[in-house]
Amino acid sequence: xxxxxTQEIQSHAQAALSGSPIYDLRTLRVESDHxxxxxxxxxxxxxxxxxxxxxxxxxxAADAIVVNLIYVADGxxxxxxxxxxxxxxKARAAGDPPVxxxxxxxxx
Length: 108
Fold this sequence. Notes:
Elements: H1 6-18, H2 23-26, E1 29-32, E2 37-44, H3 47-60, E3 65-72, H4 84-93, E4 99-101
């Protein structure tokens, strides 16, 4: 079995979110952070949707690091999605570190 590139993983993760039956998840963006990881960004209406998106991407991500930059806004109605890199910059500037989730490799 060959190793998938971060770009391939990013593409599969984006397709999974875009095809979700939950509308909030369809508006999220997944980008490669060029350090063997993925950034998930956008806005959803609940922490439940934030968690669903994170777990969906994490299941696809294999050993890639997943950075969840999803913003939860009460009463949110999806309109535009800002770049994950912009969200990361804003989070760092506000002193709000992103949550990094790293999967532990499974013993073979």
